[in-house]
## 1
Amino acid sequence: MRTSRFQYLFLFLVLLLIIPDLSVASDIPSRITFDAITFDDGMGIALRSPRSIFFDRRSGELTVADAGNNRIIIYDRNLKPLFSFDHFVRDRYTGMIVKGEPKAVAVNSLGEIIVIDNLVEYLEVLDFRGTPLEKFTVGQILGDSAIKARPECLAIDAADNLYLGVTGKMTAVLMLDKNLKLIRVIGKKGPLPSELNTILAVTESEGLLYLTDLYSVPAVKIFDTSGNYISGFAGHDIEEPDLSLPSGIAVSEDSIDGTLIWVTDALRQVIKVYNSDGDMLVQVGGFGYKLGEYQYPAGIAFTGDGHFFVSEKVGNRIQRFLLK
């Protein structure tokens, strides 16, 4: 019996449906090249436990919280130091002014630096040269002094809305307007996949909020900025897509792979890259002293033109890479 063209076409369509998709993600590691590094603040002071980093796409400057040196450092996009200053806080026990341990920073459109410090439980706003302007506790922001929670991480969007991750009796992300007035509370503490335990890092991209959680599963959770839980991925087990200490998170838009979610894992000494569905595409780096390796990677930030920076809490350096 002869097979008609229609039957061939039918068989071809059936095969398309039953044969699994064998396409693979692009080879991201081969597209990454190292192109700059810094170990100090330009004044002879070596980096010591740099944590959060923030790249301001308006000014082209990278702001770094160097906790071990009690300093905030500003570099240009080529990691040339521009300015640095000590961060001072008021000791919660003695009331005295002491050097702080800045751990998270962001910069708004006015050039003001918003800082979270390990030694205090308030959020601080500084001018571009480090002069204190305002301080806010979580209780003040929420209008309830009985709420005991401390700022842990932050992110800022193009409209100067601030996303403040807080942990304690209350665990959530506070969305604040440019005047640091509360817009809404996103998420709540609890055991469900859509709920939170200990927020480590947060970033915003295209109206979506991505955050990492130290203990809750999934380890990465995605909300929209209206407060709706969208999805999550990765656990805290030993499987390759899982995360042990997801210390930093960033999102890039790639012409080859689309939306990419980059998570620094400070215990596994790698950066794990996921697609928008939460599938792990690849892991980049590994423990070591060489260029492209990390010693407890902490913060990660993208410039918008393919470059990205990685800070190393123990390696005491900042590397810049280019994703081609």
## 2
Amino acid sequence: MDARSGEVLFSENAETRLHPASLTKMMTLYIAFEAVEHGEITMDTMVTISKNAAAEPPSKLGLRSGQKIALRYLVRAAAVKSANDAATAIGEAIEGSEAAFARRMNRTAKALGMTRTTFKNANGLTTDGHLSTAHDMAIMGRHILYDYPGYYNLFSRRTTDAGMREVANTNRRFLAAYKGADGIKTGYTRAAGFNLVASAERGRERIISVVFGGTSTAARNAKSAELLDLGFKRAATNVALRRPAKPPYMGRVGGGADMLVASAEADDSGLRGKSIRVAAAAVSKSLRPQIRPGVTSSDVAPLVAGVEDDITSVLESVQVAAVAPAVSEAPKPIDIAKVAETMVVAEGDTGIAPDSSIKPVRRPQAVALASAPAPTTAPVVAEPEPAAVAVASAEPAAQEVVTRVSTSGGRHWGINVGRYPSRYAAEKVLLQTALMETATLDGSLRKVVDRSGGFDANFMGLTRETADLACRRLQARQVTCFMIGPS
């Protein structure tokens, strides 16, 4: 198959239903990437290994029942070593049971156009009715390549750290022997023989080949090389890239319940029944906060006048181009009055660390600040300290400081929303993200960290639960995000 267009260049018995063996793990990993993308789970989620997963036969990582291990290591072990115990654990972590995961695999396969494939488990061990075709597996390989390019490098790694130990790639001989080869997946059982979905790129051309039923590793690799050579010979050099359409998402978002997704499934009798899956959707509306009792609109107006010019100048500088690729779409227009009003409401929530000597501003002083005359020039805001953000009061003669972040009480976690070429770009992204996701990031510390490769945009001073929730909500909005643990 020409990967760029999906055109089949040569086939022989390509629609014959056969045992796919560990080629199955391509679908298991595809769904894992999908689940991470939509916030169902993260690569840092600690997965508890079940007796069922630990009991899977080799090839395996050697997981023990009750053991906890990060999802990222299970993904590496399944992709590189083709570990059956890791694949089963991935399915159970995402859907609760291997049977439920197999049903999701079949829904996804149909959405991808794999019309002659039926999955029964997450690892590919021989089971009655667990069948696929060479053509369907070529489709699967093409979607792995183009739908999740950020993870595709897994399949070309000769070795990888799987948490428990370093593991070697089952496809390392072919990767080393064939020029341009960079994946994808091997498979072997007695019933299936030696299978391989291979992909190679040379110049502008990329070819995917599939071999089922090889008699040995050497014979399978030789046939794969022959098919790839034929593909490069027949494929045109200049072919427009037509990426395959991503299937509709049919999983859970963040484990919540806000959005309905319906799917129709067919059983072996051909009868069809409709199942409804409930999943969370991104927040679509943010309610305007109410002013505290005793504070009138006339109290708020002077503060709005004082900060409106400064906020407007900052917001106008936040362009969509500056936040790419961390933020994929521009935020909705922001009401300046609402932002300023929210600042008044939040002013009394200090959260000072226990050992701080800074005197907090009480709620009555927040009202007094709101009624003070508007400054004639924009206030100068100092660089925040790591443990607290200082804000000068409206009375120049008697300044008081309000802390906005506490790192006590378990607030030692943070999130990263991207790395940028300049401090200015990182600060703009932090401001825009904070305004986009006020529900979980309110009270956090915006921090830019200078790294050798650029400037990291971080929110610090969160609990682990809040950081996880914030990341899942941002990822649901297609914003790059990962958690930062206590240093």
## 3
Amino acid sequence: MCSRYAKRLPVSGKQAGLGPLEIIEMMESRSATASARKSDEAQRLLKAASTAGVKIALDENGRSLSSESFAKLLSKHADNSVKCCAFLIGGPDGHGREVLDAADLTLSLGQMTLPHGLARVVLVEQLYRASTILAGHPYHRS
């Protein structure tokens, strides 16, 4: 499902300045403690996102947005010439403090905890949905 929406995004998102989409999968940390794993993963996430103009951390305690509000947020970043938004999904232990402190926004996909693979599918679908909202495409029906 993730690749299906990822392939659709560049076509629908071009008009709105969204895309292309690059997904970087990182290996789960093998450190001995949860805090060490979170710190290790945070350092690697932030290094991978170092060139992004906006960093958005996905976290169950983050801000909840409707699909329409999410589309407006992405449009605002595109209008402000942000070339790259990095969406940071934590591992099983969640995000390290370093990621949460560096994030421009902490976003929730809902209050339920999701495995990172499922969170990725939901996020990529919402990115595609945002592109269709901004393009006036009928995919999104509210």
## 4
Amino acid sequence: MNSHLLAGKVRHRRTQPFTYQLEHDVFYFALDLAELDAVAAGSRLVGRNRRSVVGFRDADHLPTPATDLDADVRAQLRAEGHDPAGWQITLITNLRVLGYVFNPASFYLCRDAWGTLQVVIVEVHNTFGERHLYTLRPAPAGANGATDAVADPFNASMPKAFFVSPFISIDGSYAVHVRDDAGRVRIAIVLRQDGKVRLSTSLVLERRPLADRAILRLLLRHPLMTQRTMGLIHWHALRLWLRGARFYRHGEATRAHAAAGAHAEGGHAGITGR
């Protein structure tokens, strides 16, 4: 079975308007989407679309809640111009613990039939119940003399287009770095605004076999993991607010971002005559 567990640390570092850092122990499931039923059938703790100690629900994923996540993600890839036939898609995510889950970000690592990481889909959730997908394709490694090879490790960038934190505006761009080695996974995301690094986040996770004993051990070490994630989000938000970090209201920030985008589009149209 390709599916397994991942355990390690998450780190965040803000640099503006002041330095603020956090580090927490975490664990994730790395699920081969073709094995979802097999994972549930082989575990007394994990269930798919039913009540269980640790639960996977297809509808917890994608902006339009999925009904069959494997099929729906492949449809998303085809809509983005990819042919996922023969691809292995691994989802790195948290599952429901005693019925509750909140995933700030989940990652779909999409490898072709030769094992090359071709696409990374980043699925971002915010505390307003909204979801957004960033579909990332690395640039060819032409800088290293190759013309068709895909860069390894995986590096890509994307404009920020989704409201996540009330302490960060919807501006700037992300640089995403994924290194998927035999023993561990490292995912790093850097947000730049006005040419400066605003936020750096990273996950460094060691692989562990997917077995009930290992799951139970992680649940005892990190009780109510997903509930704790939501609690920590609000705890750190309170600390940022008390330190005087600028607060962006959801509706205002989203409207301002949309207006700025429309203005830029209009200016571009005027220049090109479109």
